[in-house]
Amino acid sequence: MSVLLETSLGDIVIDLLVDNAPKACENFLKLCKVKYYNYAPLYNVQKGFSFQSGDPIGPNQPGSDGGSSIWGLLRDSAPKTFTAEFHNKLKHTERGTVSMATAPAPSGDPDERVAGSQFIITLGNDLDFLDGKSAIFGKVVEGFEVLDKINDAFVDEKGWPLKDIRIRHSIVLDDPYPDPDGLDEPEKSPVPTAAQLATVRIADDEELEEETDPEALEKIRREREARAQALTLEMVGDLPFAEVKPPENILFVCKLNPVTEDEDLELIFSRFGKILSCEVIRDKKTSESLQYAFIEFDNQKDCEQAYFKMQDVLIDDHRIHVDFSQSVSKLSDNWRDGENTKRRRTGGGWGGVDNLEKKKQYRAENTEVKRNDGYGLLVDRSGHKKNRERSSSPRASKDRGYNRERSKDRSNGRDGRSRSDHHDSDKRDRRDDRYRHYDDRDKHRRR
Question: In CATH, what class is 2-197?
């Protein structure tokens, strides 16, 4: 008398001890025959101790009644439990011992316990704690590697596997008992009920493989690096916000002939729609064309048409290349200037310029900053205001007067004469000394 349980981790074959526990064996066999255990979860997994199953939905789950014996399942008037059988010779000494989970009898008799459909399979040896509490009726003879997998499964604090372990199917290999009245064996395995599907966390057939493709990992690394760089640019003020995207109505054109002018491009591309701006980028010193340009259309649709139609078109003997712009410079300028509402552009294709201030992360709402130093640096005007207030104080005025007097003293001599007067006086003294030297030399010769 044996039963094969097909689980999501493999097959388990159980031999039933019909001589020692006939009632429990009959109950288990008939429940397997009507596919009562199909899609039942494994729960209460305790490593090195045991696991439990037999409730089609799972204990303490919505819609669960704890399970029923075959007699309570076939007749509404019959109780859902039966009196468990305990044999003195049957102990939980070996791994793979199968027993019915029991509960105290409703009658209150301490020597009587009842069982329904839930059963326990041990994962360790010499578990005498279960003796007298779980009624042994079978033992595992095949599928010990499946028990090892269940024992190593990741579970939560309540013993539920994080990834579902289910009984997919049950097959009765040998049944010595006649079927009770009302038992109809289904022709095929029934589909899971809605209540059973609602308890699924991670499906037992769902693959949880970590991404190991080198190209995919490199892509993830670059995306993370790009986000970090964008966040840095936002923090220093070069981007309005890290998630800013380039406008979708601006076209990038390259491989231009150096002689191609703005007016030429605007005339050629204007057939696709209204152009707001067309600019060939030039060297600041020499004003020579750098052979690429940006063309801003009034709407995104016109820009897309130009993108599809103008690829590899010959302009001034050069085949141009067009693409959508990846620059956000105009977007950043609008954000910095604070004149979003005065612009012609409404921001339809690029997220709405008016919403930029709402998305900034590293700007305090009451901070007054302005780019006014000629180098594109952020200057705190409140600091300048404090300096002006400090310079207008009485002490500052006194210090300025003292500094002016010292400056005047440095420019004038200590006797009050100007530096130019001192210079003229020194000049006259040197001239008189020179003439005096000549007179002394003449007197010496006459002697």
Answer: mainly beta
